[in-house]
Amino acid sequence: xxxxxxxxxxxxxxxxxxxxxxxxxxxxxxxxxxxxxxxxxxxxxxxxxxxxxxxxxxxxxxxxxxxxxxxxxxxxxxxxxxxxxxxxxxxxxxxxxxxxxxxxxxxxxxxxxxxxxxxxxxxxxxxxxxxxxxxxxxxxxxxxxxxxxxxxxxxxxxxxxxxxxxxxxxxxxxxxxxxxxxxxxxxxxxxxxxxxxxxxxxxxxxxxxxxxxxxxxxxxxxxxxxxxxxxxxxxxxxxxxxxxxxxxxxxxxxxxxxxxxxxxxxxxxxxxxxxxxxxxxxxxxxxxxxxxxxxxxxxxxxxxxxxxxxxxxxxxxxxxxxxxxxxxxxxxxxxxxxxxxxxxxxxxxxxxxxxxxx
Length: 358
Description:
By secondary structure, the chain is mainly β.
């Protein structure tokens, strides 16, 4: 991938010929990870595996392949490769390879990064993976030009200004069980729904988004709710959630490795109170998962929204875990997690006015 151009330069009167080497500027491509990839019904004892290959648009051969990740549902590769800027300008094609029912590896789908998508600052974002059927999957990639850092992911945190006459009703149904944020369970008629009608799709507020600051109040769900109820004017900081899937190997129905806030409730998800830790590790399945997958660790405050791909009320999800542990020794969970980045470190988009009257 390294382009080299040699030129001869003669020094007058010395008889010395110097060969000057020009190296084409190199950008860096990082394959971050993929979400929502399909997983076939696998034979007992077979574990999923995924990798990603890259080629220049129009080429017949790959120039890079990530390592193969096993026993993971949403792979995080975080692998870098250098690429000439003139090749980057031709566009890139990514191929996702994943498991079949016998543990083999097959083609799942492709994603493309067109040349026009990469600006002088680079790229940081999600690319849709084109997969047969109704599956919706995304591949996250980043590109940094030579000598630069990777650009910030855009629109992870953004502000909404709600004018005084629009404060009530806000139109959000919140869940506050994690104690640090307000997770949106549903949207009703109100200021936020009106705001959504006047902004680009990338800025729309939706299901599972988190309000992480209300005016100057943050890090306390209780205080943020109080601020919403009493403040004459609101400025909300909204953060997109991190969503990933885990494969928990549970030895029996009474050893799930997690304690929950609301396992008997009718709410739309289970909230993790704590991950059980300590020896013996085989009796701590969530701890074992965290040790093997630090980038997708389960932690207190996480919300479990599906078990083995099926959603339901909290008590139904909890029952489904126990039944799966008893019958097959494990289960998959879809986890919604509040991002790690602190407000001081995040690049927050400029405030957007909720313009429509109530």
